[in-house]
Amino acid sequence: MAGPVLEVRGLSVGFADGRRTVPAVHEVAFTLHPGETLALVGESGSGKSVTSLALMRLLPPAPRTRVTGAALLRGRDGTVHDLLALPDAAVRALRGDRIAMIFQEPMTSLNPVHRIGDQIAESVRFHRGLDRHAALKRAEGLIERVGIPDAARRLRAYPHELSGGMRQRVMIAMALACDPAVLIADEPTTALDVTVQSQILALLKGLQRETGMGLVFITHNLGVVAEIADRVMVMYAGRIVESGGVVPVMTAPRMPYTAGLIASVPRLDLKGGEMVSIPGTVPDPRAPPPGCAFAPRCPHRRPTPCDEAVPPLEAAGAGHDVRCRRWAEIAAAAAPRPALEARA
């Protein structure tokens, strides 16, 4: 496999709250290779969207926001750029060209007073220097590429004249306008019905095979993760609490929070049982609990060691990391015991 197209090291984000800084994201680190899909999973308030906005340099500037760490993006010529250290002009040259993002709600991301064609063409004109006519031809091709029929007519449409699924396809076309190496998709299917959601996922996978882009897919839907991801990172209270290949994490989770998320997914093959949920809510970042942030909600919590200090990420297997001091003990207790051999 080629070297990573994106490498994030120790990304931390805090927001100013009076005279103090409230931490929202703690020491996030990962790599993304060409053609790979990395899913970032967690409840609302876990820090997923803040992480993506920090990588895109779309958070409010200092002193309202404090961002530390590094986000190393490989350029088209092989040069590595630290997105978090570049001046604003250099970031604008890369954003939309080498790295792009699909936002969660198209209706709040698309400009309601500009036609679809002009909005898609804007990125091409800025990054490729095309004139308006050439940029609109490129926009028409992109609309066809993402499966919107009658592309020439849709160029002249306004956002409110399109369905929710079509608007999301337009957002994908805008993101892919300059063939980025990294695409961040922030819950792109949340507001769509199941049929359209499946179509959007199939479209993203097909475009990824076609272009070889790396995809960071942010979601709270574990069913989507199982369908689209190669690797998964589970996020809670601003920290990565489990990461690894999608199969080991989904079939043998080691963090109780991950196990709770998986158990809470409705299943059609289980009839008559009650739906499972994780009690409580994500802690307030202004007043985090001592030790493990998940401890107040965890069925396996013990004051010692869970409340003593924030647990580190530990290796639970090849490429499988977990942030839990009791994960080995919990896994051993849950493992099936071998049957006793019959006595002679």
Instruction: Give the name of the CATH architecture of the largest domain.
Output: 3-Layer(aba) Sandwich
How many domains, as an integer? 2
Q: Which percent bin holds the helix content?
A: 25-40%
Under CATH, the homologous superfamily of the largest domain reads: P-loop containing nucleotide triphosphate hydrolases
Main sheet characteristics: 8 strands, mixed
Low-confidence blocks of residues: 340-344
Average pLDDT, to the nearest integer? 91
The end-to-end distance, rounded to whole angstroms, is: 55 Å
Describe the structure.
With 344 residues, this protein is an alpha/beta fold. The protein folds into 2 domains: 6-229, Rossmann fold; 239-268 and 277-334, no CATH class. It contains 13 helices and 12 strands. It has an 8-stranded mixed beta sheet, sandwiched between helices. A 4-stranded antiparallel beta sheet has the order 2-1-4-5, covered by helices on one side. A hairpin with a 2-residue loop joins strand 1 (6-17) and strand 2. Helix 4 runs parallel beside helix 7 (164-175) and helix 7 runs parallel beside helix 8. The model is unreliable at 340-344 (pLDDT under 50).
In short, what is this structure?
The chain is α/β, with parallel strands linked by helices and 344 residues long.
Summarize this structure as a short list of keywords or feature phrases.
about 350 residues; 13 helices; globular; disordered C terminus; cell membrane; ABC transporter ATP-binding protein; transport; Oligopep_ABC_C; nucleotide-binding
Strands, helices and their partners?
Elements: E1 6-17, E2 20-32, E3 37-41, H1 48-55, E4 65-74, E5 80-82, H2 88-94, E6 99-102, H3 106-109, H4 116-128, H5 132-145, H6 151-154, H7 164-175, E7 182-186, H8 194-211, E8 214-219, H9 222-228, E9 231-236, E10 239-245, H10 246-251, H11 256-263, H12 303-306, E11 314-317, E12 320-322, H13 327-334
Parallel strand pairs: 3-8, 3-9, 6-7, 7-8
Antiparallel strand pairs: 1-2, 1-4, 4-5, 9-10, 10-12, 11-12
